[in-house]
Design goal:
The chain is of the alpha+beta class. It is built from 23 helices and 9 strands. Strand 8 and strand 9 (about 275) form a beta hairpin. Bound molecules: flavin-adenine dinucleotide (FAD).
């Protein structure tokens, strides 16, 4: 695996945590949230000699430390654990640099990207427009060629950008605009005449980040500001960054979700109700804590697997990045919401932080591809795979994961994938994906099924001591396996039951055929696979609260 060595990564994570403990205390974060303030000097300190976090994000040839995808996922999770707004401010520089990283010439990379490591400059990524969000192809900002003596010397940019993180503070912007040859990225300096930022948006959450609209009025840029020096590659370049950047936002979901859940866990240890702590009440832990831990750790398995593959040189993992982001950010949102519930009335106040975390994590299912767009991306790609392999794509995955030890949850994940393959096939035969809703629901079920398989692989690797050295290690192998089995059961049940519901609901089956369809979707086996669920939840709760270890020590 490329990237940083384990010790260096641990040191950076430690330095980040130390910085957070000193400079980003709860009262400070609450103050920034209440004042709706972007702490630009904190961001500059984090990207300056005091911490130098930006170095990890840049390759060595651009004067950075050369962190790989796995490193960046770990760091993004830690940043979001502290504050998703501050994490967004840091991430936006990286995002802003990405069009140059993927599409720039070597000279352009040296010219602009070395400034991130050397000077700690702040960047912004200007893609979204008032009328072009999920559908970037609808962009209206124009880049008109400026010629002198028949030679192209530059461009004039005109238009408006919306929701740009760091928009009001960036030193350097990458701006997507329609040139005569098609959508093209341009590099624009702060202070270029005609470029102006609107007032900061008054947002629901991540209030410690700056989000602003940009206006471009006859902004003149020289011709060498075209990323890659060729017009028309902008949308391909924007797509190319997704496999990577979506993993980072997935990590934000993990960080914020666990930050909230950890507060709920601590609270429940000392909050007495009916004479005993909430942490000892199954009706509390098995609803508000354990399922969220299982979903977050399932998403982590997918994030770790995808980042490992990226670090090993695989390309075109856009669908995998989409799956990781969809599940991690949805899990983060649900965990934060449950954490408010877990703190009761206190959770609903600002002081206890979970209310802020819930507002902050909300953005993660919107930016870098909304959950619905991710569902579409996942469904379209796997639909093609299903057709190309004549329905064998998920069946082949099922065969492999079924070989894993039963304790890892592999056989249950295999059942989920078998059921998924059948749902897809029935949808093909009855042409159900003509309903956009069915297509999107398939996208979600595919993500859940493939993630159950990734989690089983991770649990099996943990049991055999073959997890990557840089993997997060919160859970010992046995509780990790219990969480994997919990998630695999949920995945199988959702795929079987919801798949059935959508096939019936979209008119894919006649009344008399429903019992046979239930059998084909493996529902009887899926129901039998639920045996042992509550015992696994008990074991997971014990691990989360450190009870098993305490009992062992007492014995
Ligand atoms: C705080 C914040 C920071 C941001 N930072 C940046 C940044 O730094 N740079 C940048 O370029 N952008 C940034 N964005 C923009 C963000 O990426 C977009 O908001 C996002 O892509 C969604 O676009 P939209 O807001 O136009 O919503 P829309 O695309 O209009 O979507 C609205 C709803 O419709 C759904 N939808 C959209 N298309 C379809 C479809 N075809 N079928 C079914 N449903 C659909 C969506 O899932 C969503 O639920 C930021 C946004 C916010 C709020």
């Amino acid at each position: 695996m490329g990237g940083l060595d384990r010790q260096t990564l641990q040191e950076i994570i430690g330095a980040l945590a130390d910085f957070g403990a000193r400079r980003l205390t709860d009262p400070k974060l609450l103050e920034l949230d209440a004042k709706d303030e972007y702490p630009v000097e904190i961001i500059r300190s984090m990207c300056g000699p005091e911490l130098g976090i930006q170095m990890a994000f840049m390759p060595q040839e651009l004067h950075g430390m050369g962190g790989g995808s796995f490193d960046l996922y770990r760091l993004c999770e830690e940043m979001a654990r502290m504050d998703v707004g501050i994490a967004t401010g840091l991430f936006a520089t990286f995002l802003g640099s990405e069009p140059i990283s993927v599409g720039g010439t070597e000279e352009q990379k040296q010219r602009w990207l070395t400034r991130i490591a050397d000077e700690g400059i702040i960047m912004a990524y200007g893609a979204t427009e008032p009328a072009a969000g999920s559908d970037l192809g609808a962009l209206r900002t124009t880049a008109t060629r400026v010629e002198k003596d028949g030679q192209l010397v530059g461009y004039r940019l005109n238009g408006a950008k919306q929701w740009i993180s760091n928009g009001g503070f960036a030193d350097l912007y990458t701006i997507l605009a329609n040139a005569p040859g098609g959508p093209t990225w341009f590099v624009v300096d702060k202070g270029t005449p005609g470029l102006s930022a609107g007032k900061p948006e008054d947002k629901h959450g991540i209030r410690a980040s700056n989000t602003a609209a940009l206006t471009l009025e006859d902004v003149g840029v020289p011709a060498d500001r075209v990323v890659g020096l060729v017009e028309g590659r902008g949308l391909v370049q924007a797509q190319a960054v997704f496999g990577y950047t979506r993993l980072m936002v997935a990590a934000f979901g993990l960080g914020a979700g666990w930050a909230a859940l950890d507060r709920a866990i601590e609270y429940s240890k000392t909050r007495l109700q009916g004479g005993s702590p909430l942490s000892e009440k199954q009706g509390y832990t098995h609803k508000l804590i354990v399922p969220h831990a299982a979903r977050l750790e399932a998403a982590r398995a997918h994030v770790e697997e995808t980042s490992t593959r990226l670090d090993e040189g695989e390309k075109e993992l856009n669908t995998e990045g989409a799956i990781a982001k969809l599940l991690a950010t949805e899990a983060g949102n649900r965990a934060a919401d449950a954490s408010i519930q877990a703190l009761g009335g206190y959770g609903y106040t600002r002081e206890y932080m979970v209310e802020k975390i819930k507002r902050d994590v909300r953005i993660t299912t919107i930016y870098e591809g909304t959950s619905e767009i991710l569902e579409m991306t996942i469904a379209r790609d796997r639909w093609q795979q299903h057709l190309k392999t004549r329905g064998q794509y998920h069946r082949e995955q099922a065969k492999k994961v079924a070989q894993l030890p039963a304790s890892s949850g592999g056989p249950i994940a295999a059942l989920a994938l078998e059921s998924l393959a059948e749902v897809m096939e029935r949808s093909r035969v009855a042409r159900l994906t003509r309903h956009q809703h069915v297509l999107f629901r398939l996208g979600e079920l595919i993500a859940i099924g493939e993630t159950a398989a990734a989690f089983a692989r991770r649990a099996a690797a943990a049991a055999s001591g073959t997890l990557p050295g840089k993997a997060a290690a919160r859970f010992a192998p046995e509780p990790l396996a219990a969480l994997s089995r919990i998630f695999a059961r949920e995945a199988a049940a959702r795929i079987g039951e919801e798949g059935l519901a959508w096939i019936c609901g979209a008119g894919g089956v006649r009344d008399a055929e429903v019992p046979a369809l239930e059998a084909a979707l493996r529902l009887p086996e899926i129901h039998r696979a639920q045996i042992g669920l509550v015992a696994d939840m008990d074991a997971a709760a014990d691990a989360i609260y450190g009870r098993a270890a305490e009992e062992q020590q007492a014995a």
